[in-house]
Amino acid sequence: MTADEPRPAEVPADDPVPSPIPAGPTPITPEQSEPGRERVPRQAEKRTKRVDAVARAEASGQFGAPGPPLNRRNPFLIGLTGGLGVIVAYGIFLGLRNAASILVLIFIALFLAIGLNPAVMRLRKWGLPRGLAVTVMALAVVLLLCGGVVALIPPLVTQTGQLVENVPDFIASLQRNETVSELVQRYDILEKVQSAVNAGTVTNALGGVVGGAKLVFGTIFNVLTVIVLTIYFMAAFERIKNAGYALVPASRRDRVRLLTDEILTKVGAYMVGALSIAVLAGISTWVFAMVVGLAYPFALAVVIAICDLIPQIGATLGAVIVSLIGLADSLTTGIICIVFFIVYQQIENYLIYPNVMRRSVKVSDVAAVTAALLGVGLFGVIGALVAIPMVAAVQLIIREVVNPSMEHK
């Protein structure tokens, strides 16, 4: 190239070199000419990945890859879950209602086992193994019940026989009474009694006798069941406690153990207080029967002591039995018995019971009376049985758990 010829223009380094424009139409690639062919490798790749995932799941022992979760906001799923919940709740309610009597017996046996456990622990401190200590306590309870029955059977048989022997003389004395004869003739009492005695009334009377027999045998069965369950609970008491403590987190187990042991101690103290009140009632009845001159004073004292252990109705039941025996002796003696038991029950309910519970369970007088009334009104006999221990447990939890947490806030 000579100096006179013009030089071509230099292209800057940053500017790309323009590609030559081919002559003729632009060529079409195979991918553009056949769009369906590019989907085939992608579908094959997805299928391969799915097969690999299933293979890995099978190799790990699972049943394939999990599917997408259910939509918990689905109206059908919500309604179905709610309906199943209602059915399960109703089934639980029916089960509890049908097993209510058995559950009550289990609860009473467990309560008695908790109350008798301090005595078992005292025997263990004296060197007896737990099995032997439980056997001693069980024999003591059985002997106590047998002693009460033996004390009651002779006077019951004697009084029943005297009543049967005295019925003809009693009817004859009524017939000789002019006032009674006049009332019988004026109101046609004899004809009404004869018309009332028919097949229907005899059937009802027999039904009442059968029902009474069922009640007696049912009561015996319930008492034996409670005794057997109480013995089993006393024998396995430590294992039951340890199983319950194992359900508590380890960080709180020691504190829960201490609080629970204190509550169980208060239940035992309540049982000792209840026994003390029952013994005091029996001694008072024995002294009263000796002063008045009632027959079988020791048997009547045993009746009052045993009945006084039954919450809500026990003291009244024992008072009715002794008052009827007093009325059988004479009208004056019966009235004196009624007045005595009315006065004594008021003293026991509002003076002796609160003071004994305040000393044994550390519950105030107002709390003891209020708890007993509320327990009877809400849950009957069971409520009266557990009212005082429940108040003591609530006071302990408030003092040791609730109040400290309030102080730290």
Structure write-up:
The chain is mostly helical and 409 residues long. Among the domains are: 97-166 and 196-247, no CATH class; 250-409, no CATH class. Helix content is 81%, strand content 0%. The chain contains 14 helices and no strands. It has helices at 30-33, 39-59, 75-98, 100-125, 130-176, 178-186, 189-196, 199-235, 237-246, 250-292, 297-308, 314-329, 331-360, 365-408. The chain is elongated. The N and C termini lie far apart (100 Å). Belongs to the autoinducer-2 exporter (AI-2E) (TC 2.A.86) family. Residues 15-28 have a biased composition (Pro residues). Keywords: Membrane, Transmembrane, Transmembrane helix.
Termini gap: 100 Å
So what's the overall shape?
Answer: elongated
Number of strand elements: 0
Radius of gyration: 44 Å
Low-confidence stretches: 1-5, 8-26, 28-36
Mean pLDDT: 77
Please trace the helix and strand order, writing H or E for each element: HHHHHHHHHHHHHH
Helix count from the secondary structure assignment: 14
Largest beta-sheet details: none
What structural category arises from helix and sheet content? mainly alpha
Helix content: over 70%
In percent, how much strand structure appears in the residues? under 5%
